[in-house]
Design brief:
single chain; 185 residues; alpha+beta; seven-stranded mixed β-sheet; disordered C terminus
Length: 185
């Protein structure tokens, strides 16, 4: 049986990485609405990445896997064993002073050592916002040779078995064919 292709069809290569050590353990609470938030708790998060493109290099590789895996591990390491807080939430009051972070939400008050905290440029700490944040951070850390061949990148964050969010968007750069619109905050 022969396969017939139209002249507009092109092959797409998609690499999916979900290594056992693409993980971080962090505490957080998600704001469910302006008056309600989860209790402070933790997850053992797992991260997965999908990278897609049509053009392979001269060795028939889409990208440098070793470098991509190293970047993912760096991002996970930066969040590991920390309490994650959204720096841009209009519903939290954050005060950083004397190497401490005070957080107020409704009648709750938390006081953390500053070294234990990661203030993220987000409005809420959810798997959706974490997936987009990790996508943005990963794209910033990719070299130009990689971004030239990649068309789309997806990042998944899983907070518990069977509960994950994928954030996927075009990767801008020469040859990507698409310019992504900036993520909304």
């Amino acid at each position: 049986m022969s396969v017939v292709r139209t002249s507009t069809e092109r092959d797409v290569f998609t690499l999916e990485l979900a290594k056992e050590d693409f993980k971080f353990s962090s505490a957080h609470f998600t704001l469910l609405d302006v008056d309600c938030g989860e209790l402070l708790h933790g997850h053992n998060y797992q991260v997965a990445v999908r990278a897609s493109g049509q053009d392979l290099d001269e060795l028939e590789l889409l990208l440098d896997l070793a470098s991509l895996k190293e970047r993912i591990r760096e991002l996970c390491s930066d969040l590991d064993s920390r309490t994650l807080l959204p720096a841009h939430s209009p519903h939290l009051r954050l005060v950083v002073a004397r190497a401490e972070v005070e957080v107020r939400f409704q009648s709750r008050r938390y006081l953390f050592p500053e070294a234990d905290i990661r203030l993220l440029p987000l409005r809420n700490i959810s798997i959706e916002s974490l997936a987009r944040f990790l996508w943005e951070q990963l794209v910033e850390r990719l070299d130009s040779a990689t971004t030239r061949r990649l068309q789309r990148l997806g990042v998944a964050v899983e907070e518990t078995a069977g509960q994950r969010c994928w954030y996927e968007a075009p990767v801008s750069g020469p040859g990507s064919g698409e310019e992504p619109s900036p993520p909304e905050r």
